[in-house]
Amino acid sequence: MPRIADKLRILTLNIAHGRGLSTYQGFHTAKGIERNLNRIAELLRRIGPDIVALQEVDEDSHWNKRIHLLDFLKEEAGFAHSQMGINTRREGRLPLSYGNGVLSQFPIEHADNQAFGEATLGEKGFLYTEHTLPHGHLPVVNLHLDYKSRVRRIEQVERLIAYLDERHNEKGMESYFSPIICGDFNSRDRKPNDAVRHLFSYLEKQCEYQLYPIGGRTFPSLLPTHGLDFIFVPPSYTVRRCKVLRAYVSDHCPVLIDLEIRE
Q: What burial class does residue 72 get, using C-beta atoms within 10 Å of its C-beta: 0-12 exposed, 13-18 middle, 19+ buried?
């Protein structure tokens, strides 16, 4: 059930196609994939987030037995609403269909998925959703950036910035709520010329965003050495707690944040 109106709990996690800690999801049977998904669902039930941003979520892919991962997690973890955004799609004998997914205890009033390209393997993108909360509506951006190229990551962040500017102009100043932006950035926050700092510089010019976790390491989950997963929080929220969870359900650690909505 949703929490009281002035509190909000959000979690972001790259679920690695439901493969758990193994190197390739195709090594698993359907039962093996479902066991891994049940571990994620148990974590979500225990932590109780209101909104969950997931990356590397399959809808209809051969390598994890065509199990719809978001539908499975929605049912097993007890979420009222969900939204899928496909970034990679491939037809044929070995089909692929995956991207970013959102689970929410609040109604999703608007959703828009933006794939960065048309690659049939490994394409990234972002899913924009607006959630109806008791105090108003909350935009959430669930983002997954390229892991190979810094230049490509910067280009992808620029795509997101252009989208947010356009959405801001469409909604108008009085009705626009600054979004929470989270996901797998495949880059560290301390590199001045990479994606995290590039996005943060833009957001700081709009309003006083905060970046979390501070100094937290999220990858690889067994022995984290890099912080790749982040949550950008606008000034309409006070951060009460942010924690990188030591959970071995994926090669990434989940990031959990507790917020209070300012009057």
A: middle
φ, ψ for residue 160, nearest 5 deg: -65, -45
pLDDT at 3 over 50: no
Contacts of 196 (CB under 8 A, 6+ apart): 185, 187, 188, 189, 211, 230
At residue 261, the pLDDT reads 84
Among candidate residues 145, 231, 235, the one with its CA nearest the CA of residue 182? 231
Asked if pLDDT for residue 176 goes beyond 70, the answer is no
pLDDT for position 177: 78
Give the fold, CATH level 3, of 7-261.
Deoxyribonuclease I; Chain A (3.60.10)
Peptide bond into 254 cis (omega under 30): no
What are the beta bridge partners of residue 8? 259
Q: Kindly list the domain boundaries of the chain, sorted by start residue.
A: 7-261
pTM: 0.95
